[in-house]
């Protein structure tokens, strides 16, 4: 340590749930009846003098603030790492154990308890592996897999809104209505950004990547899988591990709220069959990164800094009449035998209105960022649109910034206000899309100020 005070370590732990575990990520609960590939929680810890930054990426659909606050409190108690210096995020695979209730997908409380323990142990066991290290930020362009799933439709097409009972100006995932498509509604972030971490002996320790693609989901309903996030990591670990298991690769979810790979205009360009699309995308992305590694500029003495804000944000509330109408529909509904058609969606969202009415008037939203050498990583606890990520990258150091979403919380979708005005699935008021219309702008502005503060330290 005489020549370098910067250290790093990484570790991963298996979090694959047992068969029978509840799965969420769709409108209704699923049960695990097949395990296609293992799920992991992965950590990378960076230390410079007395400053420690902790990143954990988990193969799971969503983790909310109440769960993560308890996990962080136990990690802090065991390690002394400040909670403001911890980032714990979900990849957003829709084929993993459920620890929070989403729509009519219920939480598995046993799995939730087990995951809490594993995450705490993961960080505790990572710290003894700290060793002298260096870092580098890299980027590659991967436009081929990111498509806006919100479409402007021809006037004759009516995009039904199950919350208002009216019609939206855009349609998300217009299955069966392709002939009515006019154009996509937004521009994706095509950049795959990453942070590489090596020992001073040039052996790989970790690679934390970020890509703004929702998930793939090309498996049967009851199947457990890490989706393309896992395929990406597995390929990198196979190539860069050099015979040992100490290297950890992880893919985090970026600003992908309205971005997926279901192409309703140019169909048929992906392989079909179970998990083949995930493998194709994961391998393609990892190979781009592997080719880019020779371009990295390594930093052996990176300064570390964390900025953290708690922002009170309002909640979209419904009127008394809307609540009464929703309650009556819940009274008249047998949710054990609901059908996923237009009437069924109205009933599901009526339940959401009744449950949302119990929420407080405000939600505390965590906004976090880290300066690592000459680069910056932001963290937001929801599904933000590409517009948000692109605006943040425009201010940040070029090629040395990315936003980890579904981090430290999960409030569902946080669309820009003008997107809420257009409607569409991501904007429908419910427990996975409930922040006030101006929330995205307020949150974006706080993170922009953090980025500006970090940049001032770089000068």
TrEMBL record:
<protein>
    <submittedName>
        <fullName>Neutral/alkaline non-lysosomal ceramidase N-terminal domain-containing protein</fullName>
    </submittedName>
</protein>
<feature type="domain" description="Neutral/alkaline non-lysosomal ceramidase N-terminal">
    <location>
        <begin position="32"/>
        <end position="258"/>
    </location>
</feature>
<dbReference type="Pfam" id="PF04734">
    <property type="entry name" value="Ceramidase_alk"/>
</dbReference>
<dbReference type="InterPro" id="IPR031329">
    <property type="entry name" value="NEUT/ALK_ceramidase_N"/>
</dbReference>
